[in-house]
Amino acid sequence: MTSDPIADMLTRIRNALKARHLKVDVPASRLKMEIARILKNEGYILNYKTAEEGSKKLIRIYLKYTPGNVPVISEIQRVSRPGCRVYVSARSVPRVLGGLGINILTTPKGVMTGRDARKAGVGGEVLCQLW
C-alpha cells in the first residue's frame, strides 16, 4: 500500500512513457478515473478503460505517441503531496508553461483542469501539472 496513490499513478505513467510501453495498468479509484478522463479529454492519452485482474480493479491507460515515437506527455509532476498540500483560490490558479500545459485540480465542483476552474470561478487543491 502506498501513502500517495496519485504520485504512484503518475510515476507509473512516467516510467511507461520512458520505456515506450503502449499501455500501463494502475490500481483503480474514483479520483484516478477522473484524472484519466481529463488526460483523455485533453489529448494526452489515447484511451483508458477499467479492467479486473482477479479481485483487483485496474485502470488500463493507453499511452499516446507522436508519429516519430516521441511521447505526447513530456513531463508530469505531482504538485500537492500528503505532507504539503497546495491550495489555490480561483484567481490564483497557475498557468503551466504559459498555457501550453495543464494542471489538474480537485474543486468543490469536481476534478477539472486549471483552465476550467478559472472559467467556473472555483479554486481547490492542485494535484499535478503536465506538458
Written description of the protein model:
The protein is of the alpha+beta class and 131 residues long. The chain folds into 2 domains: 5-63, Ribosomal Protein S8, Chain: A, domain 1, CATH 3.30.1370.30; 76-130, Dna Ligase, domain 1. It is 25% helix and 34% strand. The protein is built from 3 helices and 8 strands, in the order H-E-H-E-E-E-E-E-E-H-E. The strands form 2 sheets. Strands 4, 5, 6, 7 and 8 form a 5-stranded antiparallel sheet that branches. The protein has a 3-stranded antiparallel sheet with strand order 1-3-2. The radius of gyration is 15 Å and the shape is globular. The model has no long low-confidence stretch (mean pLDDT 96).
Sum this structure up briefly.
The protein has 131 residues and is an alpha+beta fold. It has helices at residues 5-18, 30-41, 114-120, and strands spanning 23-27, 45-53, 56-63, 76-78, 87-88, 102-107, 110-113, 124-130. The chain contains 3 helices and 8 strands.
Can you give keywords for this protein?
8 strands, 131 residues, alpha+beta, Dna Ligase, domain 1, 2 domains, Ribosomal Protein S8, Chain: A, domain 1, 25% helix, 3-stranded antiparallel β-sheet
Topology:
Elements: H1 5-18, E1 23-27, H2 30-41, E2 45-53, E3 56-63, E4 76-78, E5 87-88, E6 102-107, E7 110-113, H3 114-120, E8 124-130
Antiparallel strand pairs: 1-3, 2-3, 4-8, 5-8, 6-7, 6-8
> What structural category do the secondary elements indicate?
alpha+beta
Report how far apart the termini are.
Answer: 28 Å
Low-confidence stretches: none
Helix count, DSSP H or I runs of 4 or more residues:
3
Q: Per CATH, what is the topology of the largest domain? A: Ribosomal Protein S8, Chain: A, domain 1
User: Helix amount, in percent?
Assistant: 25-40%
Major sheet attributes: 5 strands, antiparallel
Gyration radius from CA atoms, angstroms = 15 Å
Give the overall shape.
globular
What pattern of helices and strands is seen along the backbone? HEHEEEEEEHE
What count of domains describes the coordinates?
2
Care to count the β-strands? 8
- The CATH architecture of the largest domain: 2-Layer Sandwich
Strand content: 25-35%
CATH class of the largest domain: Alpha Beta
Instruction: Give the overall average pLDDT.
Output: 96
